[in-house]
Amino acid sequence: MYQIKTYNAIAQAGLATFTNNYALNQSDQPDAYLIRSVDLHHQTFPKSLKVIARAGAGVNNIPLDVATANGTAVFNTPGSNANAVKELVIALLVIASRNLMAAADYSAEHTEADVSQRTEHDKTKFNGSELLGKTLAVVGLGHVGSLVANAALSLGMHVIGYDPYLSADAAWNISKQVQRAATMEIAVKNADYVTVHVPKNDDTLNLISATDLAAMPTGVQLFNYSRGGIVDNGAVLDALATGRVAHYYTDFGEPRLANQAAVTVTPHIGGSTIEAEVNGATQAARTIMTYLETGNVQYAINLPALNVPFNAAYRFTVIHQNVPNMVSQITSKLADAGLNIATMANAAKQQTAYTIIDVDDLDHESSQQLIDALNKIPAVYRVRLLIHQ
């Protein structure tokens, strides 16, 4: 029986995904955490903890170095809330183009008896423009960006995308009508609207800087529904003051953005839909089960992707440092135990590596001795033995 500990309100559909071989919140020594936004930076992870799955995209709330040192795989659920974010961005594009917020505020303030005559006189103040034929620059063409780009095309917009890290898999999801830009400057130089959809990491902090804003046309409208810190908010405020940016829409508020007429802050609701919560919880639950039962890895933050069909009777998985001579040290321990390797795979991600070894014959006594021997290799974080069900 695998033990799962949950944090936050996890959608019931996700919890119901677990089979009868899983128990929820019944042990202080869980095999897995299923979380959303809880901050784990000040927690001590139990040695039993093999996997953390976040029902969402960002993992800022998880100390990845601590998890790795504990031999704990960390997963997110990319794409689970992509449609929710896409729909909100498209809605905001319409709102921005038609000055809907200012128009609604006007109507809320003017409710007097002659409101019909007055609004008929004043409505030209809120004349907007149509999205048809306008240019949208999409920075980041992953799960969300590709959906936004394709949806904007269906509205008749001209779409130009910029993503120097675009994967081959992601490229398949993007319409051929989306023009690809080689640089940020090319992507934004003629844009009426710019929207950002990239993960937050060292390479994307302040990705939209004063230099990039200066490359945009005067009167551009900017959207950040990615992560806080990817847009340099100080530079945006300067650009708003000069008119370079006409309006800034973001899901990530901070005090200096408050009470700015040309800034609209939404309360981090980009991925907050019932459907997105169900998608994230369900995907996270399936990820946990796959990892615990097969050791296979997809969408891990701190481990390389490794997917090996589990056809043998037994499987050893080893999380270890990505240093020379590790594979030979591991295989020599199996040779010392007299085991023949049926299948082996190894991959690395930055400083961490992951090895899967399948064997057909194994007895209980030798298995425990082998696990102990593998754990004694200095660069090993965690060894697991899985039995094919």
From TrEMBL:
CDD domains hit by this protein: ACT_3PGDH (cd04901), PGDH_like_3 (cd12174)
Alphabetical list of InterPro entries matching this protein: ACT-like_dom_sf, ACT_dom, D-isomer_2_OHA_DH_cat_dom, D-isomer_DH_CS1, D-isomer_DH_NAD-bd, NAD(P)-bd_dom_sf
Enzyme's top EC category: oxidoreductase
Source domain of life: Bacteria
Residue ranges of domain ACT in the record: 315-388
Alphabetized PROSITE patterns for the sequence: ACT (PS51671), D_2_HYDROXYACID_DH_1 (PS00065)
Family matches, as PANTHER family: FORMATE DEHYDROGENASE 1, HYDROXYPYRUVATE REDUCTASE
Name listed for the protein in its UniProt record: D-3-phosphoglycerate dehydrogenase
Organism encoding this protein: Lactiplantibacillus nangangensis
Taxonomic placement: Bacteria, Bacillati, Bacillota, Bacilli, Lactobacillales
